[in-house]
Write a structure and sequence with these properties.
Blueprint (H helix, E strand, L loop, with lengths): L2 E3 L17 H11 L18 H13 L16 H27 L12 H19 L12 H19 L5 H14 L1 E3 L5 E3 H4 L6 E2 L1 E6 L4 E4 L6 E3 L11 E8 L4 E9 L6 E7 L4 E3 L8 H7 L7 E8 L3 E10 L6 E2 L4 E5 L2 E6 L4 E3 L6 E7 L3 E9 L2 E10 L18 H5 L7 E7 L7 E11 L4 E4 L5 H6 L3 E7 L3 E8 L7 E7 L5 H4 L2 E8 L5 E8 L3 E5 L4 E9 L6 E2 L4 E4 L6 E11 L3 E12 L4 E11 L2 E12 L3 E6 L5 E12 L6 E2 L7 E6 L4 E4 L5 E3 L6 E7 L4 E9 L4 E10 L3 E5 L7 E11 L5 E3 L5 E5 L5 E4 L7 E4 L5 E8 L4 E8 L5 E9 L6 E4 L3 E9 L6 E2 L6 E5 L4 E4 L5 E3 L4 E4 L2 E2 L4 E8 L4 E8 L5 E8 L3 E6 L5 E11 L5 H7 L6 E8 ...
Parallel strand pairs: 1-23, 4-86, 5-87, 6-14, 7-15, 17-24, 25-31, 42-49, 50-57, 51-58, 61-68, 62-68, 70-76, 78-85
Antiparallel strand pairs: 2-3, 5-92, 6-8, 8-12, 9-10, 9-13, 11-12, 13-15, 16-18, 18-21, 19-20, 19-22, 22-23, 22-24, 25-26, 26-29, 27-28, 27-30, 30-32, 33-34, 34-37, 35-36, 35-38, 38-39, 38-40, 41-43, 43-46, 44-45, 44-47, 47-48, 47-49, 50-52, 52-55, 53-54, 53-56, 56-58, 59-63, 60-61, 63-66, 64-65, ...
Helix pairs in contact: 3-4, 4-5
Length: 1308
C-alpha cells in the first residue's frame, strides 16, 4: 500500500535526506512566538495612577447626560434586556409557527379559522396581515435595544411579511411549501376512524405493538495477532534524530480480551543476514486508545476498523533497518495468541538529487547535461518534470535498478516473503542508481528540471511537489538554467542627406523572445576602400536596428554578430557598396521665336542635365523699364529626365531678361547656385501681334425682323480696324462688313435687321492695329438663329361645339391649339352672359401637346393674347367665345300613406310596431341614377348611427331598426346621383335640408325563470301525494304588458321526447307552478319556456334559444351497501360503503355500542378501522329526496344484517418475552429462541437471521443471512434451537383473518 511522506511532517518519513536540522522547528517556534500580545502605539504610553480620578469624573459626567427617553419600557431591573429580546423573538417564532400550521391546513383543504366560515384563504390572509403588522408596529414601543427600528424600517418589515403571507397562500406550487406540506402529510396525516376521531394511519399500523423483542447469539472469537495489519511501508532516515520520538511506530492488531505480557520479535540484519530474537515486555510497548494515530486513514475507511473490548492495537517501537516478524505473543493468562503470517522490512528512506554541468545562461543548440542520483531499495520509480517557458512536461521512469539486479520485490507481495528471500536480504539494501540526460535544447526560455516523486521497491514514497521551490534548489531537487535565442542580423542601405556619400547603413536584428535580457547586441563590420585598404570596427546597440553614416565610399561587410550570451549568424544581405555622389549640373541653350509680321515674340530653351533625376530648377524673369530691371515673374520647373525643353512668350511687349538661378535633385536637396551668372542669363525684346475674339460665342435666337449686337475683345494698339462676314446657311449667301477707327479694346458691333428666317453665321475675318500689321483671324464664330414663323393660339373645338355643362364645384377643360416654341403663355377673358368682363387670366403651357384652359365658373371665355419662349404671337378668330354652365342637383321627397303622416314640412311619423318587426320609409327621387342616399338613425338611448343605400331607380326605401324599445328617428340628410357625389357637394359649397321621420317600437315580451338552470329535486311520492311539499318554481317578468300567455316545453331524459302545454292569463301574482310537476316520472326533466305573448299582441318565439330552462329531478329513495360484503376486515383496513342518491348524505351508525352521525359529501362512505369491533348502519338520508331510510325497523332486519360487519384485531408476535437479549455461546453450543403469538390460530411466521457486515465508513450494517417461513402453527408458542450466531427477529405474522408486517425492519 502506497504511503506518501512530506517534508517537515511528524511521521518517520521526514526531511532527513536534505540534511535538515532542528532549525526548521526553531523557525516554526519563532513564528509562533510572534503571535503573543504586543502593546499598541497608544498602550506604550506611561501609565499614571494619578489619572484615575479624572477618568472616573468623565464617566460620571457621561452618566449624567443619559437620555431617559431611550431606556426600555420595561426596566432592566425588572427584566434583563437580553431576556426582553429573547421574549420578543419567542413571540415572533410562536406567530410564525402558528402561521405554518395554518398554511398546512390551507394547502391540505382543511378549514382555517377566521372572519369568514366559507373562505379559508381570506381567513388566513386577513388574520396574518393584521397579526404581523401589529407585532412589528408595537415592537419599537418597548424600546428594546437592537429591536428598536426607524419608522421606514418598520414599514418595510410589514410590507415584506405581507408579501410572504400572500406568496405562501397562493395556489401556485413552489418547492418549500410543497416539500413542507408533503413532509407534514406523510408524518401527520390524520383520517377519520369508525369511532369518529381523527387518527394517523401510521400510528394505527404501528408495528412496534405487534413485533416485540429480538435475540442475538454471539460465538466467542479466537485470540489472534497480526503485525502491520494495514501492510504499510516504513523507512528510517539516515539521521534518526529527525524522528519526532526517535523511533518508528509500527502497529500490531490484537484480538483478545486479556492483556499482553510478552511479544517475541525476530530481527534480521540487512547487511550481515544475522538473526536475533528480541523479547519485548509490557514496558517496551504500549496499547494505543486511538488506532487512527497508527493506521492510515484510507485503511480505516476501507476496513471499517473500530476499537472494541476485544480488538486493540499495540504500538511497536523500531529504531533499526532490517527484517521483522512476530514469533509469538503471550497474554496475561499465559496463553499464546495465534499469529497471522506477516513480514515487515524497514529500509533507509530513498534519496534523490539532480545536478547539471554548464552555466546558467545557454544558447539554442547547447546540451542540457543533467545527472539524477538516486539512493534506495530497487526497483525504484521516479517521476520528474521539465518546464520550458511555463509549459510543463511530466516524465515517469519505472524499474530503476542496478545492472543484473534481482529482487523478490519484482513479483512477490511486499508483506509476505519466502524462506529463500529471507535467507539473503541483500535485495533490501540501499543501492545507488544514476540517470544521465544529454539532449540538445531547441527552444528558448527558462528550463526547470524538478524531481516530483520517488518510490522505492518497498513502496516508500518521497513526494517533493509540496516543498517550496527555494528549498528544492537548495537541496538539489530542482535545477534551472536559461536558454537564449540565436541573434540573426543583416545589412540594409538607406538614403541619408546628412552623409557625405548621401548613404547610411542599418544593421537589423530579428526579434527574439528575451530581447531585453540579451542586450546589448554587437556586430563586427569591415570596410574595404576602392584602393584595397581595409579596416574593421564594432557596434553595440540595445535595439533591433542600428544606423551609422557611410562617410567613406567602398564596400561595407557584416562579418559577425552576437548578443550578451550567444554568438549569432548573418542572414540576408551581408555587404553594401557605397559610392561618392556627383552634384547635378545644367547646360542651357536658347533660340528665338519669330513672327513674320512683328518679329521676335518669345524664346525656346533646350536644357541638358548631369546627375541623378529628377531635377528641380528655378528661373527669374525681369522686365527692363526706363533702364531699370524689375522682377516680372518667377518660374519653378521639374525635369524627370536629363533633357528638357520649354518655351516662354510674354503677354505684353517689352524688353525681358530670363535668369536661371538654382538647381537641385533628391541627393542634393539643398539648392546649388548656377554660376557664372552670365552663362545662365538670357536677354530679348519682344512684341505682341494684334488679335480679336468674340466675348460671348453662345448661340443667339431672334424673332423674324429683330436686330441684335455682337461684343468683340481686341488686343494690340488702337485704333483698330475689324472686318467680319455674315453667312446665310440655307442659300449660301455671304455678306462682308467693315468697322474702322475703333479706339477701345472692347467694342459692340450693331447687326442689321433679319427679315428672312433661317440660320446665320457671323465670323471675324481680320484685324489691324496702329502698327499697320493686318492679321487674319480664325477665332470661333457666333451662330444666329432667326425664326421663320410667327407663334399663334386659338380654340381647338369640334364643329358647332361652343358650350359645355359641368358639375358645380368642378373644372371644365377648354381645348386650345398652340403654334410656336414652348413654353407658351396664353391670356384670356371671363365674361358673364351679358358680355361684361369679370376677369382676365393667364395660363402657362410647357408644350403644345393637348393644351386646355381649366375653368370652374359659369360664363363665356375669350382668348386675347399669347407669346411663346421668346416671340409674341397672334390669336386666331379673336371674337369667338366659349360658354360654360352647371348641371342640375338631385332631390327627394317622402311618400305619404296610411302608415306615414306628415307633421310639418320636414317632419313625418310612422305607426307603432313591435320589437323585431320590420318597417320602411318610402322616398321619391329626382336626378340622374344611380342614387346614393345618406341618413342617420337616432336610437331611443340617444345613440346616432349613420348609413347609406344605393338605388338604381327613382324610388327608395329606408329600413327602420326595431331592436330597442322607444322612439326611433330617421334623419335623411343627403342624396347624391351620377353627376353630383359627396365631394361635389363639398366643392360646390351647398348642403341639403334634413328631413325627420319618427316611429315608436313596443317591447318584445320576455319572461324567464327566476333561477335559471336550477335543479328542483323531490321524491316521486311527493309528486303523487304531497303537492304542498313541492319546491315553488318562480318566474321573472322582464318586459312586456301583462297578462301573458306562456307555452312550456318539458323534455323527459328517460324517454327522450318532449311535451308542450300553454298557460293563459299568467301575471306576476298568478302562476300555477305545480302544474309543471304533474305526471312527471323518475328521472330528470328539462322545463323550457318556448313562447311568450303579451297584451299588446307582441310575440317572443326565440325565448327557448336563450338557455331559459330549469331542471326538475324526480329521485328515488337513497340506498347503501358494502363494496365487498365477502371480505374480512382487520384493524388498519378501510371500511367502504357505496351510496346511491344525491349527495350530501346523512348517515347514522353504531360502532362498539357508540351512536354516531355524519354527513357524507361523496358517493362513498369510507372510514379507517382504528380498533376492533362491530359497525351497524342505522339510517340514511340524501339531500334531495328528503326521504329517510331506517334500517332498525323489523321490516329492514335483513338489510341491517347485510350492512353490519366485524373488525378483527391484528396478530402479534413476541421474541424472548419482548426484550432484546444477547446470549454468548461457545462454538458447538446451542441456544433456544421462543416466539409467542396473540390472535386467532392457525398462525404463519416469517423470521430472519442477520449478521453485521462492514460498511463503507467502518460501521456495521445488518445483512440478512437466512430467512425462514413457518405455517400452520395452531399453538400460541413456537420454539427454534440453533447454534448459529446472529440476530433473530420476526418480520411477518398472520393469523386466521389478518396479516401484520414489521415496517421498522423493512424501512431500515
Amino acid at each position: 500500500m502506497d504511503r506518501e511522506f512530506f517534508l517537515n511532517s511528524t511521521t518517520p518519513r521526514g526531511n532527513h535526506w536534505i540534511g535538515a536540522t532542528s532549525s526548521y522547528r526553531t523557525q516554526h517556534n519563532g513564528t509562533t512566538s510572534q503571535r503573543r500580545f504586543q502593546p499598541s502605539a497608544n498602550s506604550s504610553k506611561e501609565f499614571k495612577f494619578g489619572s484615575l480620578p479624572e477618568v472616573k469624573a468623565k464617566k460620571t459626567k457621561q452618566a449624567s447626560d443619559i437620555d431617559y427617553n431611550s431606556l426600555p419600557l420595561i426596566s432592566p431591573e425588572v427584566l434583563d434586556v437580553s431576556r426582553q429580546r429573547f421574549l420578543a423573538l419567542l413571540v415572533f417564532i410562536i406567530i410564525q409557527s402558528y402561521k405554518a400550521y395554518d398554511v398546512y391546513l390551507l394547502k391540505t383543504g382543511l378549514p382555517v379559522v377566521g372572519l369568514l366560515s366559507t373562505s379559508s384563504w381570506f381567513n388566513f390572509v386577513s388574520k396574518y396581515v393584521v397579526v404581523d403588522a401589529m407585532f412589528l408596529y408595537f415592537l419599537p414601543s418597548f424600546k428594546i435595544p437592537k429591536l428598536t427600528f426607524q419608522p421606514w424600517v418598520v414599514l418595510l418589515q410589514i410590507l415584506c411579511m405581507w408579501v410572504i403571507t400572500f406568496f405562501i397562500s397562493t395556489e401556485h406550487d413552489f418547492s418549500l411549501v410543497t416539500g413542507t406540506t408533503t413532509l407534514l402529510w406523510k408524518f401527520n396525516n390524520k383520517e377519520v376512524s369508525l369511532s369518529g376521531s381523527s387518527v394517523s394511519h401510521r400510528k394505527v399500523m404501528d408495528s412496534s405493538a405487534h413485533f416485540k423483542g429480538a435475540m442475538t447469539i454471539k460465538i466467542l472469537p479466537e485470540n489472534t495477532a497480526m503485525l502491520n495489519p494495514s501492510h504499510e511501508s516504513y523507512c528510517l532516515p539516515q539521521a534518526t534524530e529527525l524522528l519526532p520520538e526517535g523511533h518508528l511506530k509500527v502497529p500490531i492488531r490484537i484480538n483478545s480480551t486479556s492483556d499482553i505480557q510478552l511479544i517475541q520479535l525476530e530481527y534480521r540484519d540487512l547487511y550481515t543476514n544475522g538473526v536475533e530474537l528480541r523479547n519485548l515486555t509490557a514496558k517496551d510497548f504500549k496499547v494505543v486508545s486511538d488506532p487512527a494515530a497508527l493506521l492510515n486513514k484510507d485503511h480505516l475507511s476501507m476496513k471499517g476498523i473500530v476499537d472494541t473490548n476485544s480488538i486493540k492495537y499495540v504500538e511497536l517501537p523500531l529504531t533499526e533497518v532490517g527484517f521483522y516478524q512476530i514469533k509469538r505473543i503471550i497474554d496475561s493468562k499465559n496463553f499464546s495468541l495465534k499469529v497471522y503470517h506477516s513480514h515487515l522490512v524497514v529500509s533507509h528512506c530513498p534519496v534523490a538529487t539532480i545536478a547539471g554541468a554548464g552555466s546558467f545562461d545557454r544558447c539554442i543548440g547547447d546540451s542540457d547535461k543533467l545527472t539524477i542520483e538516486l539512493q534506495g531499495v530497487p526497483p525504484m520509480r521516479l517521476g520528474y518534470s521539465k518546464a520550458v517557458g511555463g509549459q510543463q512536461h511530466t516524465y515517469l521512469d519505472s524499474n530503476l535498478q542496478p545492472e543484473y539486479f534481482e529482487s523478490p520485490l519484482q513479483s512477490t507481495p511486499r508483506y509476505i516473503f519466502s524462506s529463500g528471500d529471507i535467507s539473503d536480504l541483500s535485495w533490501a539494501r540501499t543501492y545507488p542508481v544514476t540517470i544521465s540526460l544529454d539532449l540538445p535544447v531547441t527552444q528558448e526560455g527558462l528550463y526547470n528540471y524538478r524531481i516530483d516523486r520517488l518510490v522505492d521497491g518497498l513502496d516508500n514514497v518521497m513526494d517533493f511537489t509540496k516543498i517550496p521551490e527555494s528549498v528544492q534548489r537548495e537541496h538539489g531537487v530542482s535545477y534551472n538554467f536559461k536558454v537564449h535565442g540565436i541573434p540573426r542580423a543583416s545589412l540594409e542601405e538607406r538614403f541619408d542627406p546628412n552623409s557625405s556619400t548621401k548613404k547610411s547603413i542599418s544593421v537589423n536584428f530579428e526579434q527574439i523572445q528575451d530581447l531585453g535580457a540579451a542586450t546589448p547586441y554587437w556586430a563586427k563590420i569591415s570596410h574595404v576602400a576602392a584602393n584595397g585598404g581595409s579596416q574593421s570596427f564594432n557596434i553595440s546597440t540595445d535595439s533591433l536596428s542600428h544606423y551609422f553614416q557611410a562617410d567613406l565610399p567602398g564596400t561595407y561587410k557584416l562579418d559577425s554578430v552576437g548578443s550578451l550570451f550567444c554568438p549569432g549568424v548573418v542572414i540576408g544581405k551581408s555587404s553594401v557598396l557605397v559610392t561618392k555622389p556627383i552634384p547635378p549640373e545644367l547646360e542651357v541653350n536658347s533660340t528665338p521665336i519669330l513672327d513674320q509680321c512683328v518679329g521676335q515674340v518669345g524664346l525656346n530653351f533646350d536644357l541638358t542635365f548631369t546627375g541623378v533625376p529628377p531635377f528641380y530648377y528655378r528661373a527669374f524673369i525681369y522686365r527692363i523699364e526706363n533702364g531699370k530691371r524689375k522682377l516680372y515673374d518667377t518660374k519653378k520647373y521639374t525635369s524627370q529626365g536629363t533633357r528638357n525643353q520649354f518655351s516662354y512668350s510674354p503677354t505684353s511687349e517689352g524688353n525681358y531678361e530670363i535668369v536661371f538661378d538654382e538647381l537641385s535633385n533628391q541627393l542634393f536637396s539643398e539648392p546649388i547656385s548656377l554660376v557664372p551668372r552670365e552663362k545662365y542669363t538670357f536677354k530679348t525684346s519682344m512684341r505682341v501681334k494684334p488679335s480679336a475674339v468674340f466675348k460671348n460665342i453662345n448661340e443667339k435666337k431672334l424673332c423674324l425682323g429683330d436686330q441684335t449686337k455682337a461684343s468683340v475683345k481686341l488686343n494690340g494698339e488702337s485704333p483698330f480696324y475689324v472686318k467680319y462676314d455674315i453667312f446665310e446657311t440655307s442659300s449660301n449667301k455671304r455678306k462682308t462688313y467693315e468697322v474702322k477707327d475703333i479706339q477701345s479694346n472692347h467694342y459692340d458691333i450693331n447687326l442689321p435687321e433679319f427679315d428672312v428666317g433661317g440660320d446665320y453665321i457671323m465670323s471675324l475675318v481680320s484685324v489691324k492695329d496702329s502698327s499697320g500689321c493686318l492679321v487674319g483671324l480664325s477665332e470661333p464664330d457666333v451662330m444666329i438663329k432667326v425664326r421663320r414663323d410667327v407663334p399663334s393660339a386659338s380654340f381647338n373645338l369640334l364643329e358647332n361645339a361652343d358650350s359645355i355643362k359641368i358639375k358645380q364645384g368642378s373644372n371644365a377643360e377648354i381645348p386650345i391649339k398652340l403654334a410656336g416654341e414652348a413654353p407658351f403663355t396664353v391670356k384670356f377673358q371671363h365674361l358673364n352672359y351679358e358680355g361684361e368682363v369679370l376677369g382676365v387670366h393667364e395660363t402657362r403651357f410647357n408644350s403644345n401637346y393637348k393644351p386646355s384652359l381649366k375653368v370652374s365658373k359659369e360664363g363665356s371665355y375669350k382668348l386675347v393674347g399669347m407669346h411663346d419662349s421668346y416671340c409674341n404671337g397672334k390669336i386666331g378668330n379673336e371674337n369667338f367665345q366659349f360658354k360654360v354652365s352647371f348641371l342640375d342637383k338631385p332631390s327627394f321627397s317622402v311618400i305619404e300613406s296610411a302608415k306615414t303622416n306628415k307633421l310639418s314640412a320636414i317632419t313625418f311619423s310612422k305607426e307603432q310596431v313591435c320589437q323585431g318587426r320590420e318597417s320602411t320609409i318610402d322616398l321619391s327621387l329626382s336626378g340622374s341614377p344611380p342614387f346614393i342616399l345618406k341618413y342617420d338613425i337616432i336610437a331611443p338611448n340617444g345613440y346616432t348611427s349613420s348609413d347609406s343605400i344605393q338605388v338604381a331607380t327613382k324610388y327608395a326605401a329606408v329600413k327602420l331598426p326595431n331592436q330597442e324599445l322607444g322612439e326611433y328617428t330617421a334623419v335623411i340628410n343627403a342624396l347624391f346621383d351620377a353627376n353630383y357625389g359627396e365631394d361635389d357637394f363639398v366643392r360646390a359649397g351647398s348642403a341639403y335640408e334634413e328631413v325627420f321621420v319618427k316611429q315608436t317600437v313596443n317591447p318584445t315580451p320576455y319572461v324567464s325563470f327566476a333561477d335559471l338552470g336550477k335543479t328542483y329535486r323531490t321524491c316521486s311520492i311527493n309528486v303523487q301525494d304531497d303537492v304542498l311539499s313541492l319546491e315553488p318554481i318562480k318566474l321573472k317578468f322582464v318586459q312586456g304588458v301583462a297578462p301573458f300567455s306562456l307555452t312550456f316545453s318539458i323534455y323527459h331524459e328517460s324517454k327522450g321526447r318532449s311535451d308542450q302545454f300553454t298557460l293563459e292569463d299568467v301575471d306576476p301574482v298568478n302562476f300555477p307552478y305545480h302544474k309543471l310537476y304533474e305526471n312527471l316520472k323518475l328521472g330528470n326533466h328539462v322545463v323550457t319556456i318556448e313562447k311568450v305573448v303579451d297584451a299588446n299582441g307582441c310575440t317572443n318565439d326565440l325565448i327557448a334559444t336563450q338557455n331559459n330552462h330549469v331542471l326538475i329531478s324526480i329521485t328515488d329513495v337513497p340506498k347503501i351497501h358494502l363494496l365487498d360484503p365477502t371480505a374480512e376486515y382487520c384493524v388498519g383496513d378501510y371500511v367502504a360503503y357505496q351510496l346511491n342518491g344525491v349527495a350530501p348524505f346523512s348517515i347514522k351508525y353504531e360502532f362498539n355500542q357508540k351512536q354516531l352521525k355524519l354527513k357524507e359529501y361523496t358517493s362513498q362512505f369510507v372510514r379507517i378501522a382504528s380498533e376492533p369491533g362491530v359497525i351497524s348502519i342505522a339510517s340514511i338520508e340524501d339531500s334531495i329526496s328528503q326521504c329517510v331510510v331506517n334500517f332498525t325497523t323489523p321490516s329492514m332486519k335483513k338489510e341491517f344484517d347485510k350492512l353490519s360487519l366485524l373488525v378483527h384485531p391484528l396478530p402479534s408476535v413476541t421474541v424472548s418475552r419482548g426484550k432484546n437479549i444477547i446470549e454468548d455461546i461457545h462454538e458447538g453450543d446451542q441456544a433456544e429462541i421462543i416466539f409467542t403469538f396473540d390472535g386467532n390460530p392457525p398462525f404463519s411466521l416469517t423470521y430472519v437471521r442477520t449478521e453485521e457486515a462492514e460498511g463503507s465508513k467502518g460501521r456495521g450494517i445488518p445483512q440478512v443471512v437466512e430467512t425462514h417461513k413457518v405455517t400452520d402453527i395452531y399453538a400460541y408458542e413456537y420454539r427454534v434451537v440453533t447454534s448459529l450466531q446472529g440476530t433473530y427477529q420476526a418480520i411477518e405474522v398472520s393469523d386466521a383473518f389478518c396479516f401484520a408486517k414489521n415496517d421498522a425492519y423493512f424501512s431500515n
